[in-house]
Amino acid sequence: MLPATASPQEEEDSAMENIVTEKKAEESHRQDSADLLIFILLLTLTILTIWLFKHRRFRFLHETGLAMIYGLLVGVVLRYGIHMPRDGTSVMLNCHVNASPATVLVNVSGKFYEYTLKRVLSSSGNKVDDVSDNENEMLRKVTFDPEVFFNILLPPIIFHAGYSLKRRHFFRNMGSILAYAFLGTVVSCFIIGLLMYGTVTLMKHVGQLHGEFFFTDCLFFGAIVSATDPVTVLAIFHELQVEPDLYALLFGESVLNDAVAVVLSSSIVAYQPTGDNSHTFEGMALLKSFGMFLGIFSGSFALGVATGIVTFTKLRDFQLLETALFFLMSWSTFLLAEACGFTGVVAVLFCGITQAHYTYNNLSRESQDRTKQLFELLNFLAENFIFSYMGLTLFTFRNHVFNPMFIVGAFLAVFIGRAANIYPLSFLLNLGRRHKIRSNFQHMMMFAGLRGAMTFALAIRDTATYARQMMFSTTLLIVFFTVWICGGGTTQMLSCQRIRIAEVPERSSTKHESAWLFRIWYNFDHNYLKPILTHSGPPLTATLPPCCGPLARILTSPQAFENEGQLKDDDSDLILTDDINLAYGDITVNTDGSGVHTSSGAGFASGMSSEDLDRELTCGDNEVVMRGTCLVFPMDDSEPTLKDPHMRF
């Protein structure tokens, strides 16, 4: 039997359909290119304007705030100035189903067409007058999938925060930073949640609430707005050279509390009590959510550290391949954590910290420079893209819910929650700190609690319900206010609080001031972990007992033996003072505050007077001795800094 041949009319219709399809595909490609061009021009305009601001020394507006302004202007133009209705015709058919299907298969004249769900145009009972003109096509095009922010834009921002961490001041204030980031974020979350629940209850009584809003929704809102992002303030701090301890406290808190806020929000969403009502209080469900918080955070932490440790690069002769491998391993940490059910933000953060501590020392000099510059560039572009998109979203997002009572309550709750985080914890921390967190530092930290990229990304990830839409709209306003008002007033606030700038502050650092746990870890890391995982640090033959000599020679890399005479301790900034002596075997290595490394043999001390040697070692009380390695910490480094970095006491 011969196969049936298509009629000439059917062939003509098929050819015409192919032409129309190709034309639509070409038009869609042009439209997508125009949409991306809009964001490229926004970033270009932001960069040029910021160059002008820096040239004129204007500090009242950071590039992120400027990017938001440009995004707002473009959003106004797209919303009210350009109208591009959808192509084709729309047919409305009524069909009663129990739930919204993700895909619909339609049979039209024997041809099957598959349609996917984009969004809900109206709720049940509401009439859509004109579906074809209901939405500007360009507005729909410039609306990105929220997963784009989590999988593409957030990883370089979070990784750069860990990779560029100022570890000396971070570890000097590690206890305070952990208290603000963990305990403070949880306290802020619950205080904001309770205050917002009271606001929502009041809205119900006065008839201002037009949808469901549960206590878990209020806690979720408290979690997402507790993530601080003081990028504007930190940029001004860096430019003005504000006191390092204040910078470390603010930066360290913002880095870690982003991770805490992500895990905390996930745990709140996972709260599922037994029974029909999923929003009632139940002790077991609460404990389960708390256990999930600990499990997700610890699992993400372990995964990030493990990935950072195993990122060995043996491609030093091929710097491009080495940099590419480092970049891909770093980014894959985020995706691996998300695929395993953990939190990619926590994993990639600690991966960055670990790689800066270990893997960075194994890279070639060219790759070290390339990775720093690469992630700094990606961080800059991703952050400004997100802030531009924030401004754009204020006019392009179609389901905004602005409620004046909720907005006012949210602003009050955010500032009260921030105050409950900073002031009580600072009081408790000062009870155990030798160098207190001064009141002007506390006021500055309170003022610098800006909200930014992480808060926006968490809010936009789910806008399906009435409560989430109201939270997203309010979150945008909170971000705008904190970036423009608080960020713009940073210089004035520094002047008002009389915080020193453009100078190296005097401080007195002693052994007893620093965290004993960190000192134990540092000695273990320097003597054992660094020689195994990197090519720096003393060889294991000098730190392990003599009976472990064969094992030490196997585990120590050949490069470590080659560098034995010129010990390269790239982690000397972890030490809590500006001067450190490392001595093992017949070699003494000095790392001074300027980062200069000097070494000498057995005759090093012979050329020094006993008076000089006493000053070199300061006091015996401050000497930490382990097998093979001697760490000498000066009692006091409050003396004026010498102009010649090579001169030392």
UniProtKB/TrEMBL annotation:
Keyword match Repressor: no
Keywords carried by this UniProt record: Antiport, Cell membrane, Endosome, Ion transport, Membrane, Sodium, Sodium transport, Transmembrane, Transmembrane helix, Transport
Membrane-topology descriptor: Multi-pass membrane protein
GO BP term, pick one: sodium ion import across plasma membrane
One cellular-component annotation, GO: plasma membrane
Domain Cation/H+ exchanger transmembrane: 46-495
An example Gene Ontology molecular-function term: sodium:proton antiporter activity
Subcellular location field: Cell membrane; Recycling endosome membrane
Transmembrane segments: 36-53, 65-82, 148-165, 177-199, 219-237, 290-312, 324-357, 377-397, 404-423, 443-460, 472-494
Keyword Cell division in record: no
Superkingdom of source: Eukaryota
Major site of localization recorded for this protein: membrane
Family: Belongs to the monovalent cation:proton antiporter 1 (CPA1) transporter (TC 2.A.36) family.
Protein's UniProt name: Sodium/hydrogen exchanger
Taxonomic source organism: Neogobius melanostomus
Source species taxonomy: Eukaryota, Metazoa, Chordata, Craniata, Vertebrata
